[in-house]
Amino acid sequence: MSADLAINGGSKTRDTSKKPWPSVGDKSGRLFGQEEIDLLTEVVNSGKLFRHGGRMVDQFEKEYAEQVGLKDCLAVTSGSAAIHAAVAALELEPGDEIITTTITDIGSVMGILQCNHIPVFADVDRRTMIMRPDAIEAQITDRTRALVVVHLFGQPAPMDEIMAIAKKHNLYVIEDCAQAHGAEFGGKRVSTIGDIGCYSMQQSKQITTGDGGMVVSDNDELMARARMWHDKYYERGGEMRGYMRLGICYRMNELTGAVALAQCRKLPEILRRRRASAEALYEKIATIPGIKPPWVHPDAKHSWWIFSFQIDEDVLSCDVATFRAAIQAEGMPFGTGYAGGIPICMYPVFQEHQAYGTGEFPWEPPYGRMVEYREEDYPETYWAQANTFITSWNEGYTEEDAEDIYQGLKKVAEAYS
Length: 417
Prior knowledge:
By secondary structure, the chain is of the alpha/beta class. The protein is 36% helix and 14% strand. Helix 1 (34-46) runs antiparallel to helix 8 (254-285) and helix 8 (254-285) packs across helix 13.
């Protein structure tokens, strides 16, 4: 092993105390500017901060729908709220089952339980950490009603195969596009392939308002239900309030809408920057023996929320933990594992069936089915979590940053080869 490695006392490839990586946590990795300030100022000067009576949220919804290529967009308070609204719009029965992935944020799953449905989890493709079509089909029962498909890390799921399964079994498809603004599969934008799509604008996403989200679709009935449900089922155009059924309050305010509108208009440039730096890095690390660049489906157009790679331990003659420690010592911004590094269904809320109070509703019969979530059912998830290197990606990264990462990975790979 080379004495030149930083872990052995050599010089770092990049001293992050002097040259930190751009971060989505501050302006170094975000495209904020005068456009947001001007629109926020307009809202404050108008005195209209509520979406009904203002113009920002309405205009944002119009422009985002046009960008995606759909008729309707509903702005909500978060990506989790978007999933919750989409599930609610399906108007399923308590105890009905919805299949989703083992590797995702809890926001993809909370709305399922909060609508009193049972989440069922499908194992993933170890190359992408996205759920596999064959694993989805293996989980379908006579209680299955829908899929929540997560386009993880900015890469679309294999929607051709997934939509074929959904059609065969008459299932709704909700696309969770929280991490995939601008991504495409088969020439179609994500969120336009299934029945209804959901986006997030949390701080780390391709466009951000700190927190915020959208529901999008061409299905008039689903969107009408989601719009009513997110506004407490308040009949704003009628002669009486009407509250026809149980809803919730997930309305976006005008201040958030102002930032959302400015960010929406910047999305093409944000995507251009992310793709330029990520694709430059992809090409560089593909030349390093022992490094496996992220596998991208040939029909997919990535939008790079996270950059990932794996290693070939036989070529490098070291394990993942050793390689991780060495590249981190070089100043490389990579760790392993996502969202805790275990299947999402291994957390107590699912393992102990603790959604509400002390009971096991909605799993408990006669409402639902007492589904058990077992480690042995998700072998590819465990492998991928343990063996995939990831780092957050953003529009602040440049080709110079890509070169530094390439040099750091190359230095360590060559030392262990």
